[in-house]
Amino acid sequence: MDDQLKIFKAYDVRGLVPDELDERKARAIGWSFARLCMGTGGIGPSVASTTPAQPLPPPLSPAGVAPEDSQFSRSLVIARDMRQSGDGLASQFAAGAMAAGMNVVDMGMASTDMLYFVSGHLDMPAAMFTASHNPAAYNGIKLCYRGARPVGQETGLALVKEMAQEALAHGSDGGKETPGTHLERIDMMAEYVDHVLSFVDVGTLRELVVVADVANGMGGMVVPEVFSKLPLKLHMLYPELDGSFPNHPADPIQEENLADLKRAVINMHADIGLAFDGDADRVFLVDENAQPVSGSVTTALVATRMLSKFPGSTILYNIICSKAVPETIIAMGGVPVRTRVGHSFIKKVMAETGAVFGGEHSGHYYFRDNYRADSGLIAALIILELMSVSSSSLSELLEPFRQYKSSGEINTKVDNPAGVVAAVAARLSDSGVQCDLTDGLTVDYGGWWFNLRPSNTEPLLRLNVETSGELEIGTCVDMVKHLIEEVS
Q1: What pairing do the DSSP bridges indicate for beta strands 357-359 and 365-367?
Q2: Which segments of 82-156 does DSSP mark as H helices, in order?
Q3: Which of 159, 227, 393, 480 is deepest in the core (most CB within 10 A)?
Q4: Catalytic hit among 75, 132, 313, 388
Q5: Which has the closest alpha carbon to 324: 296, 352, 350?
Q6: Which domains does the chain have, with CATH numbers?
Q7: Which pTM was predicted?
Q8: Any catalytic annotation for residue 132?
């Protein structure tokens, strides 16, 4: 059978609408995910049961629901961002879930971190319709189990794909809604705002000037709600919800998309600039001098605050974070643990280690007390709290973490990203270079290091290079690019 569902990635579903992801597929995925949740009590299968060779879990009958399950044990929650295709996809996903026998609670439009909060707060599995930072023609689905537990390839996503393929091939998505199921609307904004604010002492915040560029994404809904409770002067850029992204792409990791924010920070004499992505779960910072702040440096700074509140705690950082991150954690008396890139991997390690916080170079920041889920807004508030209690500017706070030079993420389209990474690793291994294959290829030469890995969400080869200054960053980048050219 042709793979109709190549839209399934390492930890989410994502593709062009309608060529790759359409309403029929959304319905099949909704039916499959509901069936998986009902068959496992909403907590997902064990890792051992997610290989295709294992039998698919049957849905539980209403009488088969365990009494210790929450009141929402036969319900799942859905939400969508502002993309034009989201309403139709979410509606068909809900229809598929109800055909499988699951009730659906619809939040309407929301940020991804708001959906994770509701999943945790109500102890319900959930589905968020978003393509995050991707262009307007894309959409996708982020899934989680009860308590915002992650769904990835090794924790159920492969089974959802297999069941959805079966449904598409044989028309076995349940047909009409199961009698007794229903869809209800829910508004959890007030509870979400209170939860986000619980991570800081609002009384310590001083009157800082903040510019937030939400890029016509979901930040336009949630940022004003949270900041309305704070003694801050907020200026918003592009707050209108518009999934066509008329002003600039909602991809703040690309510095060209920060141009408007940097200009506004200078013109408004702001203390900080915040740039959110399309579904508002990521945030990138711009300091008062309009200098962009990498996700690694932000991770190091948030880690200092978390370790001051929770001394000796474990802090996670992903494999492409700056060396400044583990060095900072150790200096603060914490325990650094390195992880693979991606939310499903990080959340799993957080659960295993009890880590209080985890950060990614890509601008995702995870908190134990946020159901181990990521939230750019929580990270932003912690930075604002730190600026307030220290009476320091953002650039002053960041100075200790800026001792390394980074290339930023360099993305290249190649025919076979995984093959290129394997070929570069083989070439280096043959010449005696130590290669770390934890996530893609990482090579540390002492004075500089690089990571080369295939994207988990796009057909791209991602390169990150960092140097302590012994060599120019451009020289290091050129050396890796030359290796790539040699093996391509």
Answers
A1: antiparallel
A2: 86-99, 112-122
A3: 159
A4: 132
A5: 296
A6: 13-189 (3.40.120.10), 206-292 (3.40.120.10), 294-395 (3.40.120.10), 405-487 (3.30.310.50)
A7: 0.90
A8: yes
